[in-house]
Amino acid sequence: MAFGITRTELREWKDRAKQNEISFLTHFWIDDRFPGCTSVTKVACADIEKLVSWGRNYGLKREWLHWHDDYPHFDLLGETQYRILKQEGLLSQLSRFRVLDKL
Fold first, then answer.
1. How far is it, in rounded angstroms, from Cα 56 to Cα 98?
2. Which of 36, 41, 74, 84 fits a 20 to 30 Å CA distance from 65?
């Protein structure tokens, strides 16, 4: 479940993804399988080949795609999340949730 974002932000993420844009959404997220991670960034795009190609540039594999809610996406966590958001110029998504303070 996503915490710390608005319905508008979620709708905008979905709209950008539907328009075949690489769309980023970071929110609070806790899962016992990933201790120490307090957020996730979902990177979505309706154009699957575009998303897979984008992910390949960062070492992400096609089989890591999630198909939830008709929005194919990669989940970025921890160091991978930080590294990719930094390269994309989107560290503000992490600072908003004070993730940078923990790195």
1. 28
2. 36
Cα(17)–Cα(12) distance, rounded to whole angstroms?
8
Query: Cα–Cα distance between 67 and 84 in angstroms, integer?
Result: 21
pLDDT of residue 39: 85
Instruction: Tell me the chain's radius of gyration from C-alpha atoms.
Output: 13
Give the pLDDT mean for 10-34.
91
Q: Report the Cα 17 to chain-centroid distance in Å.
A: 12
Q: Are 86 and 100 in contact (CB under 8 A)?
A: no
pLDDT at residue 94, as a whole number:
74
In angstroms, the CA 96 to CA 102 distance is 13
Residue 44: strand pairing partners? 23, 73
Instruction: Round to whole Å and give the CA distance between 30 and 84.
Output: 20
Q: What is the pLDDT of residues 62-76, one digit of tens each?
A: 999 998 767 899 999
